[in-house]
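Hello again, I could really use a second opinion on something today. I've dropped the whole record in just underneath, so have a look.
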Amino acid sequence: MHGPNSITWLLVALCAASGAYCVLRMRSGVEEQRRTAGSEALMGFGMAVMALPAAVVTPPRAAWAVYVAVFGAAALRALWAARSGAHHLHHLVGAFAMVYMAVAMAARPGEHAGHAGAGTPLVTGPLLLYFAGYVLWSGARLVPVTMAGGGPPVAGWGDRPELARACRLSMGIATVAMLLTM
């Protein structure tokens, strides 16, 4: 990724922290939450590695093929899971965005993410619009809603919906930042 090193390192830390929290969420007692958390952990850690500054590590071209394979498989899994819920469509779009960014980075190994003034490609624009909208929507969902009974008691870290939403919001923001460098 291009950009100031301090911002890039903050992006890496944000994605890695989101991935780590998603690993904690995998201990939930609810099977659907565990599956979703696993997909989100893969996305968080993948984004953290992809966002590493080019000065620190310039992966070989073959590494991007591994990215394409891993996130292509994640996209297929999300497509299959989308039969049961709309949130999996978001995972599908996220995995597609990761595949797209990996292909773009493989095509320009010296640039590591930039198009060097090529403008907004046809795929980057719609992905930016989608994730910007997702960030606004998920950010609005973090606004506390007063409940008459105070809401149900929360069992543990894996079952905290507000933390899961914050995690999704942070990964959405990171995706927008990464797409802006395309």
Summary: The chain has six helices and no strands. Residues 5-180 form one domain. Residues 112-118 have pLDDT under 50 and may be disordered.
